[in-house]
Amino acid sequence: MRKIKKILISQPEPSEKSPYSDLVEKYNVKIEFRPFIQVESVSITDFRKQRIDILSHTAVIFTARTAIDHFFHICEGMRITIPETMKYFCMSETIAVYLQKYIIYRKRKIFYGNGTLSSLLELTNISKHKPEKFFLVLADSFKPEVPKTFERAKLKVTRAILYRTVASNLSDLNPKDYDIIAFFSPQEIKSLQNNFPNFEQENILFAAFGPTTAKAIKAAKYVLSIEAPKAEIPSMSKALDMFLKANL
Fold this sequence. Notes:
Elements: E1 6-9, H1 19-27, E2 30-33, E3 37-41, H2 44-49, E4 59-62, H3 65-77, E5 87-90, H4 93-98, E6 109-112, H5 117-123, E7 133-139, H6 145-152, E8 156-167, E9 180-183, H7 186-195, E10 205-209, H8 211-219, E11 224-228, H9 236-247
Parallel strand pairs: 1-2, 1-9, 4-5, 4-7, 5-6, 7-8, 9-10, 10-11
Antiparallel strand pairs: 3-8
């Protein structure tokens, strides 16, 4: 196996010191960050094709801060003014607080859970809001369980695709410069293939975070060498730490 000198993390570079910084010092390796995918709003034309009237809804459900950005982006593009009577249901308090970027927080009816779908249903006592007509903001790659959770609660929910994941432009990147490339989603594998149609893995080691990412790597007929999370390996940085410790 080739000596590990350079590692590519297919994510944005952390704004603060992260566990990856410790790996650089501990093993004298170079770690670089480059997002393989990016999120963009659907066009106004594509949203109109969904035939959804935002103002016919009385409540909005946000499962991520990204969803908030794209919701208000679409509203601005369509010159829609959201009434103060609109209710907001957020997956977590962090997401709820992010609403302050777009609305006067104290004047609105905002409810939130502790980070899970079940908590959003329970902590907000959402069953008391069944008369509301909910607008659920989703990405094109949403997990089916998300809308089904609200539908099982017998809520009136409209699914709306407001943003999508697309491949980043990696034309200035040479995958062959790296000894390890760490992936975090199946879309990143597609991005690799889209950007480099003739790519051959050869002796580059692939790392995967999450079972769906690992499955995508294997489905693309690449070799997977490092996998997380597992028992006692909760993160990608920990997985890399253990691998480097065993192989350097």
